[in-house]
Amino acid sequence: MSEQHTIAFIGLGVMGGPMTGHLARAGHTVSAYNRSPERTRRWGGIWDEEGLEVALHDTPADAARGADIVLLCVGNDEDVVEVALAGGGVFEGMSEGAMLVDHTTTSADMARRLGAACADAGIGFCDAPVSGGQAGAEAGRLAIMCGGSDDDFARARPVMEAYGKAIVHVGPVGAGQTAKMANQMCIAGTLGGLAEAIRLAQGAGLDIEKTYDAISGGAAQSWQMDNRWASMTSDEFDFGFAIDWMRKDLSYALAEARRLGLSSPVTALVDQFYADVQAQGGGRLDTSALLSRLPKNSDKSG
């Protein structure tokens, strides 16, 4: 077991809740806060049934008080400001020498802003967005992309090992968020091609299972193909990573690309396709629901 820490986890969503549980199972002393009291009570009940000790608090500052490492996993830049920098945020409870790790997927500017605030307060910092979805969080097998100094990364890594399978120090503050942007761009492009490929196979009347067997063992293979082919071809989308969140992530990626003077036409196009699905009421569906905007050939698909 790695060195035990006093940890505060802020944000008990579908990612943060399981991650907090893994920290408690690893033997750390864990406090937590979530903005939704209902979700807080739900996770508290789950942990009580398992016999895990997680102290629940009324404010981020209260949860962070006395913690040597504080972890955030909330929704977006504005949420990070609310739980970290605003009144009652973690900075009010953290002490000099503590460490802040932000697992939220944010803009690179937000990461740099947090990093500067931490430096001014004598607090270590890593931006460390995650990939792997709810299933990865529950299994403790997330991919974590980290930005920060070598020393801060070395300090945070043993704690993140409680829920991470691939933990990579990409570069300085902001590099983790930029790597996550690249991750989301890859997913968007892959799903765009996968959706069109499925409609082609359906329109041609191919056996869908045999088509998957034929192409998944070659260069077209991807995580999205392996994990979403069956659900996409069955028109099942009410699960997984919501399109609303993907569009948030892609907006950060496109903004960072513009800041760097780069063109990202494929990402921009797929983002607009996702906007179409949102307009049809599918914002909370999984990102694989990109398929739903492409009509079937009713004469041959099956």
Can I get a quick summary?
With 302 residues, the protein is an alpha/beta fold. Helix content is 51%, strand content 14%.
Overall pLDDT score: 96
β-sheet strand percentage: 5-15%
Helix and strand run: EHEHEHEHHEHEEHEHEHHHHH
**Main CATH class of the largest domain:** Alpha Beta
- Largest pleated sheet: 6 strands, parallel
Distance between the termini: 52 Å
List segments where confidence is low: pLDDT < 50 over at least 5 consecutive residues: none
Shape: globular
Widest β-sheet, arrangement of strands: 3-2-1-4-5-6
Describe this structure in words.
It is a single chain. With 302 residues, the protein is an alpha/beta fold. The chain folds into 2 domains: 6-172, Rossmann fold, CATH 3.40.50; 178-293, N-(1-d-carboxylethyl)-l-norvaline Dehydrogenase, domain 2 (Orthogonal Bundle), CATH 1.10.1040. The protein is built from 13 helices and 9 strands. The chain has helices at residues 16-25, 37-50, 60-64, 77-85, 90-93, 108-121, 133-139, 150-160, 175-203, 208-215, 223-233, 243-259, 265-279, and strands at 6-10, 29-33, 54-56, 69-72, 99-102, 124-127, 130-131, 142-147, 164-171. The chain has a 6-stranded parallel beta sheet, sandwiched between helices. A 3-stranded mixed beta sheet has the order 7-8-9. Strand 2, helix 2 (37-50) and strand 3 form a beta-alpha-beta unit. Helix 12 runs antiparallel to helix 13. The radius of gyration is 20 Å and the shape is globular. The mean pLDDT is 96.
